[in-house]
Design brief:
With about 325 residues, the chain is α+β, with helices and mostly antiparallel strands. The protein has 11 helices and 9 strands. The protein folds into 2 domains: about 1-65 and about 295-330, Malate/L-lactate/L-sulpholactate dehydrogenase, four-helix barrel (Hypothetical Oxidoreductase Yiak, Chain: A, domain 1); about 75-290, Malate/L-lactate/L-sulpholactate dehydrogenase, NADPH binding domain (Ribosomal Protein S8, Chain: A, domain 1), CATH 3.30.1370. The protein is about 45% helix and about 15% strand.
Length: about 325
Amino acid sequence: MNRPPENFKRIPADQLRSYAAACLKASGLLAEHADQLAQLLTNSELRGVRSHGIRTIGGYCPTLKSGRVNPRPNLKVIRETDTHVFIDGDGGLGYAPTMLATEKAIEKAKAKGVAVGAACHLGHYGSAGHYVHRAMEEGCFAFSVQGAYPQYYPSNQDKRAANYGNPPLCFGLPGLAGPPLVLDGATCILADYQRGHEIEAIEALIPAAFFKSMGYTGIATALGGVFVGQGQEEARAVAERWPGARLGSLVWVMDLGLFAPATQVRAGIDALISHVREEMIPLKGYDEATLPGTMEYRKTQEYVQEGIPMGIEDLERLKKTGEELGVAAPWA
């Protein structure tokens, strides 16, 4: 899914961002939230995370127009201290409330060393990496996760334990002169689109991997779900009013200099990444051993200069979304 498309056209990031924002606004989303979401989706494209990029407006726009999530949520602070903040997302998409929690947690972590932000009554918040990258920009380490309560994932409708959920999570630490170390993914051993024969064929060969992914899924689901209030009656009432808003989110932020000097930590990340690249034997079929975060870093540098390679089929679907909303695609 996140490999560069074979048939593509390079589109400037600004065009994608402005087009996504226009489509989201035409779907009723608050202008401020639309601009923010369009930027975050463009950031995903720049990192090569196509699965959570501009293509997702094809789902978000009808979700907003149909009333599955609140297009004009009133975000509120439920509770706040020097080291934590809790946001009510009011049935809207998860991006704006989780980013608000992230910004507040960053400020608190800089003052106190550690802070936690959470949000409840949300829809999808996209890639967990959005919130971790924002914290890294401010010289922090961060972890983010989204979950639900009661646990629900479409991929688990067949009740197979090997298919148990796939909530998003991300850890990230910035480097000094090179790429960051960013584990941005989900908890299942295989992606959602790989369900079926692929997962059944290896289930008996490596059961330990599935037991691990089940454990990760359970912890992630709990942290992003019941831990942040999704088990309360109010959360169920919100989900009845806005059926697409049955999720919560969590972001944990630490100042990078909490234990050792921040510059030393950043330099250590550079050394760790360099050691893997220079000393380790690559996986079969690959030319280089890399840690997660390096490929996204390289793609961002390339795509900012040369444009984002958008699949031809993706562009056609995006164009159709715009036509239904009265928004013209600039690349057409």
